[in-house]
Amino acid sequence: MTTQPVFRLPAIPKFQCKAVHLLLLVSVVTIFLFNRTFLAMFWSGVNISSAHDVLFALSVPLFMVIVMTLLTSLLSLVVGLRLAIMINFAFAALVSYATSSFGIVFDKEMLRNIFETNSQEAFSYVNLSVIGYGLLAVLVPVVIMMRIRFRDTFKQRVVSVFAVNVLGVLGVIAIAALFYKDYAAFFRNHKELTKYITPVAAYDSTYKYVRDTYFTEPTPFKMLDPAPQLNPYVANSTTLTVMVVGETARADHFQLQGYPRETTPNLDREKVHYFSSVSSCGTATAVSVPCMFSRLNRDEYDHFTAEHQDNALDIIQRAGVEVAWVDNNSSCKGVCKRVPSFTVEPNEDSGECNKDTCYDSVLVTAVKQYITHSNRPNKLLVLHMIGSHGPTYYQRYPATFRRFTPDCQQSDIQNCSNEALINTYDNTIAYTDYVLGEIIEVLKHSGIDNTQLLYVSDHGESLGESGLYLHGFPYALAPESQTHVPMLFWQNLQSDYAGVNRDCEGKFASQTISHDNVFDMLLGMTGVESIAYRPENNAFSHCDKSLAGILSDYPVAAAP
Questions:
Q1: Which key words are in the record (predicted)?
Q2: Could you say which of 3.40.190.10, 3.40.720.10, 2.60.40.420, 3.50.50.60 is the CATH number of the domain covering 229-552?
């Protein structure tokens, strides 16, 4: 006697179709299902005033379907039609999910940020929503493809697919002949929109990243100044400059910026000098961190060029200042490759770390140890915080810093309430305030003649505004929340110099500046005379009682 199963999964039916029909169907579905964001933005930006404009608007999705068909056909020459369809569909689904859920756009710099992310940071993005969607995106097309049987022979498939590609090329030529001026005019003014075309834009960005990273001809390293020197005042005194590179801190959530919550009470008590109008160089760490230390301005910044020439740390070290970098984040993104550097390794026994990351309080300990062990008179210590790095904001502060509740104790932040998400993020800012306050206390009692601290965040963060989360949006389209960053300055000088008074502060704190100024501010703060120095970019030159202002009175060779 056989036992019938109580429950049986329904059998997935088999399908029969022609290869070319499947190719066209999947191309149409990919464009209209996974390019909703692009199509919505495109149609909202088109000015419809004639029948020609209507035809132009309708030609764009048709053009995209043709390109998707051609792309899949080309890929099928290498891996076969089934696998080519599965790869394109799954990749498009995953890219579309990231774009629609977080507002992520996969341009070349976002790809750089992804490829340069360490495993700990990458796993912080993994949650049940991502896993579930990823499994569906991969398994569904695989199962369906395995159940499809082609009606035509291999020879017929080759002929039909070739014919469709020929028609596709003719279609592209026809669209170009009829609407070339429209395409050129629209996408010249809306260039950033092309980064939303899924998955073509992501493929293009991946190709450009791989090309520029692995297949670009080696470039000789360019030394911007072979013989920088220390200012006489610095050379005859002891100095310690601490630069803190913040992570994902947006200016409008700083109490110092006017935010109604007490997110920076320690810094407020220290009477730090706050710069209220500062723009980042990029919207992701992989761009902003190397850019702020580079001589290149944001408009001319290129990762490859910056990587093969001096940055601010190189010049400062060459002048005789001891330079060190301590990292509690993913990495220094190449900035510290020629100076001594140390990366914090999680140690659960210390009480300051969990399994994967450490709280930024470890940087306070690092400052104490550095002061104890370094006997050089002039020092620059750069601290790279983990700050407000998302989406696991709740892991950036200990339980004692859950000041604003309820907070969002999960990484799929788009599923948290707006109140909980804001509370969690504000807790990270409050913890950054605590850490900076502790570092200032250490500097006060260091016994060093002149100590100073400069803090600036690498970029900001979106917290659900307009459906955007996290960061990395193309700069031209990025909201202010991702580009307006906090910057502040604190100093403790010898008694001969009273420091920055309030009248002086008013001369520079409200300046409109950016990461482009950091290079010259660092050279000014450390007293380095260099032909690479541009005094007009040093925001402290307006203040004759800051250390950098004092030093600006000395003759400094400026760049030609």
A1: Cell inner membrane, Cell membrane, Membrane, Transferase, Transmembrane, Transmembrane helix
A2: 3.40.720.10
For residue 82, the surrounding DSSP H or E stretch is helix 81-102
Per-residue pLDDT for 274 more than 60?
Answer: yes
In whole angstroms, what separates CA 208 from the centre of its chain? Answer: 17
What is the dihedral angle through the alpha carbons of 489, 492, 498, 501, rounded to the nearest 10 degrees?
20
* Average pLDDT over every residue of 428-447: 97
Question: How many other CB atoms sit within 10 Å of the CB of residue 51?
Answer: 8
Identify which has the larger pLDDT, 5 or 344: 344
The partner residues of 484 in beta bridges, in order of sequence, read 279
Q: 398-429 pLDDT, tens per residue? A: 999 999 999 999 888 888 999 999 999 999 99
Instruction: Extract the tokens encoding 96.
Output: 């579309």
Residue 4 has pLDDT above 90, yes or no: no
| CA proximity to 367, closest of 468, 241, 252 | 241
Our separate counts of H helices and E strands in the chain read 20, 15
- As given in the structure block, the two tokens for residue 386 are 């983990």
DSSP per position, 242-257: EEEEE-S--GGG-GGG
Tokens of 382: 């750069």
Q: Tell me the pLDDT tens digit for each residue of 164-198.
A: 999 999 999 999 999 988 888 888 778 778 888 88
Lowest mean pLDDT among 62-76, 121-135, 356-370, 498-512: 498-512
Amino acid letter at 5? Answer: P
Going from the C-alpha of 371 to that of each of 72, 242, 419, 440, the distances in angstroms are 59, 11, 41, 13
Q: Mean pLDDT, the chain, as a whole number? A: 86
All structural domains of the chain with their residue ranges:
15-214, 229-552
Q: Considering Cα of 392, then 395, then 397, then 399, what sign does the dihedral take?
A: positive
In a 3-state reduction of DSSP, which class is residue 113? Answer: helix
